[in-house]
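Deliverable D2.4 — example input (structure tokens):
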């Protein structure tokens, strides 16, 4: 009963219609299990009562008040109800004003003379206490407290039309129907590490009675999250392969050597060192589990292709997985141009490959008529079968969930795995998420690359920027213009792709060929636009952040990022990395609005002062702090719901001890009935870079 219920969509809950379901979907919540694991971003402590006369300026009231009077201020659509209340105690001397913006209907609810429980944030304006953020609940005839008062109340992340009341209602509804939640961890692990059972931890998460018990619940959920991340990764890497593997062969193969000598340039020292580390790993009995990290444009993919040649010469197959069809297609085209002249058979597979073409491709893959298959998450579909999968390369690995990556590993017997990332990964995260992970780093850039010049552009300098880019067009070079919105919603000053495409093409650069690209376009249309851009038929793209990763156009020399203050450092660095991919001098223009926060100002200055991705990642950590980068609100390599990879370092060590204990026992861990909650934890969506499109 438990499993069937938790797999139900949120629309099965009373009161959840299409609008609420869409808002939940924006938060990554589709099922009851997803909603139960929606971690509150904070809690309101309503355990102690504070009257109006006791609160400091900017403080919170949690008390009983009496409604004194109603009035209105403003006119027309801005006409707003103002409710005067006073303390309901004997003195009743302190009064306050409740400003009901958008809630004029409260005149019918908050009747004069009635008593209500009030919780709200108050500040002193115009010589009176005022609040526009408050909750009111009628005092019950028997004097008993309403549900939300006298307790700690969770505050959840919101989206769309969601309110705190809706989320609390829906979670309470699930907890009332699902019965007792089964445990996620073996009993001996729970006892040894003083953890709560799963049912208690989930219920306390949403209805804590005190800070102490909440701390125990959060530890249990963080422990569970880290436990399965480590266990599932280390089970894949702690085993030893058998077969015809030559454990002593670390020498460069004939095929590798031929390919390297055919290149019109020399590999950098870092690339050569990374290849040596990969060869050494591949020669061991244990499967390789290595991360190849390097800055944008440092030549990681070339290292991956060279290392794949070793596997192909030994009659193995290679799977190369990219996060988007655009990126996968680009990799396939480049790989074909480089490797097919050496007899390497390459295929391309995404969800858009269907029908007879898909069946023929899968048949060829199963009969070993394909050496390297390049694609998206379609590679781990059930109908994809390999003849001898020996090597898996995962590009932009942080954009895949843990279970997604491991689903591909299940198609082979302990294959070598190479993950690639353009963002440095902290050692603690590597050990936690990927098990016993080794790291190779490429810091040096290919010979001939020129550092990108970055300018900070205010609105007053916009015309000069447009003129400078026009000079680049006259030289036959290309440009990107990136905006955070696809279209205007009529209520914001943010520039959007559609309106700016018209402005640029009609007013700024008439007669210069351009194209508009964003995530709502059909995939084949996006591919066609990029192909024409690559051939030079288009001089500039007007785009959202859909061009952030993997687009490699050597002739593009200008990147314009509008509302740059709204982007994170990782996104800004990735976008800037779309230019500067040749020996041409390239430029990045970060256009910002006048009112910058301190953090936004720091981010823009970091981008202006440095093009070093490793330095930028360090500064990102310093600016945002460990809770933002690696905690429950992480924008990074994995979106953890409960654990923090910095503040929970002692817990990480504790979890590793527990995982060691389980691996030594080597017994079935849990029954299949536990998969629902566990899989929600492990399917945590990949990071940040949820698109900046709005």
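Example output (designed residues):
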């Amino acid at each position: 009963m438990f499993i069937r219920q938790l797999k139900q969509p949120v629309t099965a809950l009373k009161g959840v219609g299409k609008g609420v379901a869409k808002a939940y979907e924006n938060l990554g919540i589709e099922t009851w299990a997803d909603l139960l694991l929606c971690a509150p971003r904070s809690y309101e402590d309503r355990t102690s009562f504070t009257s109006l006369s006791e609160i400091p300026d900017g403080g919170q009231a949690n008390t009983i008040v009496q409604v004194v009077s109603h009035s209105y201020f403003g006119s027309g659509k801005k006409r707003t109800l103002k409710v005067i209340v006073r303390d309901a105690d004997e003195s009743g001397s302190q009064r306050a004003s409740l400003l009901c913006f958008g809630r004029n209907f409260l005149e019918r609810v908050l009747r004069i003379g009635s008593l209500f429980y009030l919780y709200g944030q108050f500040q002193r304006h115009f010589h009176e206490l005022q609040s526009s953020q408050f909750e009111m609940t009628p005092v019950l005839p028997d004097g008993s407290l309403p549900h939300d008062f006298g307790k700690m109340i969770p505050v959840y992340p919101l989206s769309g039309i969601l309110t705190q009341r809706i989320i609390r209602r829906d979670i309470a509804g699930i907890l009332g129907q699902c019965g007792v939640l089964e445990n996620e961890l073996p009993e001996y692990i729970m006892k040894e590490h003083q953890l709560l059972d799963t049912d208690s931890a989930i219920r306390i998460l949403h209805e804590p009675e005190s800070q102490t018990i909440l701390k125990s619940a959060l530890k249990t959920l963080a422990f569970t999250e880290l436990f399965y991340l480590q266990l599932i990764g280390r089970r894949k890497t702690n085993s030893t392969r058998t077969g015809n593997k030559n454990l002593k062969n670390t020498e460069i193969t004939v095929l590798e050597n031929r390919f390297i000598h055919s290149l019109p340039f020399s590999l950098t020292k870092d690339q050569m060192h990374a290849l040596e580390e990969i060869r050494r790993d591949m020669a061991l009995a244990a499967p390789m589990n290595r991360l190849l990290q390097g800055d944008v444009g440092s030549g990681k993919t070339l290292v991956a292709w060279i290392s794949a040649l070793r596997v192909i010469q030994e009659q193995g197959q290679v799977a190369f997985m990219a996060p988007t069809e655009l990126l996968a297609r680009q990799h396939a085209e480049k790989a074909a141009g480089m490797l097919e002249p050496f007899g390497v058979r390459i295929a391309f597979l995404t969800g858009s490959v269907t029908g007879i073409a898909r069946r023929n491709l899968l048949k060829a893959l199963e009969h070993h008529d394909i050496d390297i298959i390049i694609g998206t998450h379609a590679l781990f579909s059930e109908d994809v079968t390999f003849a001898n999968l020996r090597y898996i390369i995962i590009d932009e690995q942080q954009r895949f969930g843990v279970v997604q990556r491991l689903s591909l590993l299940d198609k082979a017997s302990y294959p070598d795995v190479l993950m690639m990332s353009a963002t440095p990964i902290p050692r603690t995260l590597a050990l936690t998420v990927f098990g016993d992970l080794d790291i190779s780093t490429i810091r040096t850039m290919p010979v001939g690359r020129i550092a990108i010049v970055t300018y900070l552009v205010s609105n007053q300098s916009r015309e000069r920027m447009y003129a400078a880019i026009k000079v680049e067009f006259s030289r036959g070079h290309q440009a990107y213009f990136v905006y955070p919105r696809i279209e205007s919603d009529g209520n914001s000053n943010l520039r959007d792709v559609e309106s700016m495409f018209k402005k640029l093409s009609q007013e700024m650069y008439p007669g210069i060929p351009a194209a508009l690209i964003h995530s709502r376009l059909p995939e084949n249309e996006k591919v066609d636009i990029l192909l024409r851009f690559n051939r030079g038929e288009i001089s500039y793209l007007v785009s959202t952040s859909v061009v952030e990763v993997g687009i490699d156009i050597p002739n593009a020399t200008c990147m314009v990022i509008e509302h740059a203050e709204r982007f994170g450092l990782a996104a800004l660095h990735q976008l800037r990395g779309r230019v500067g991919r040749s020996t041409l001098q390239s430029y990045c223009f970060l256009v910002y609005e006048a009112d910058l926060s301190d953090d936004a100002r720091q981010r823009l200055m970091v981008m202006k002062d440095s093009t070093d991705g490793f330095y930028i990642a360090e500064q990102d950590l310093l600016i945002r702090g460990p809770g933002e980068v690696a905690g429950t609100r992480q924008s990074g390599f994995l979106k953890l719901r409960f654990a923090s990879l910095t503040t929970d370092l002692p817990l990480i060590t504790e979890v590793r001890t527990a995982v060691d204990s389980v691996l030594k026992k080597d017994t079935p861990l849990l029954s299949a009935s536990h998969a629902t909650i566990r899989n929600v934890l492990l399917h945590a969506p990949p990071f940040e870079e949820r698109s900046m499109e709005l």
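The radius of gyration is 29 Å.
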